[in-house]
Amino acid sequence: MPYHELKLLAFDTSTEWCTAALWVDGDLRVAEVHAGQTHSQILLPMLRDLLAHAGLTLGGLDALAFGKGPGSFTGLRIACGVAQGLGMGAGLPVLGVVTLEAMAEESGAERVVTCLDARMGEVYAAVWQRGGGHWQALAGPALYRPEAAPLPDERRWVGCGIGFSAYAEAMSARYAGRLAGVRPEVLPHARAIARLAAPRLARGEGEPAEAARPYYVRDKVALRRDER
Is pLDDT of 226 > 90? Predict the structure, then answer.
């Protein structure tokens, strides 16, 4: 099936924002709300509303897509759990999309450094370049100290994500002369996840819902007392 003929539901809870998007034959319907810590209460009603407004049910979809990380550990577990539950219940394939790639897609630029605040004095970051209709990761996604974040070449890039404002001084010094602009407001969004997922799902890259997993990057959520 051509990807523009797919019907898929995408969602992301990796940051304080809860976003969802319904892709129907290439058209997108979007919902978003600043959820704080209430994603688990907001996400399912948001998805139900999107489907209802389009006159669809889960059984009428072809697939689900979700932001698999990196990002908030709790948020990643919520999105993955919802993808597993809905996918298994409706017999739908699932595709996880890297949140940092979704940020590059959301930016509208061609050469992007994406950066999220990973807390504990670190960032999740990656360098992306668009070519041949898809994104290529030139560095990352990985966990970095801000002063050691991945550097692109000397060409002018766009820096996206809250990591650039959370560690503004260190990031400004690190990327001096390499960025055409900084857009800290760019975050992973379900509409970008849907756009990235549709052609991949059409190529058969979806997996059984029970196989879906978060992409944490980091393996711990807090410093020990002796590390502080």
Answer: no
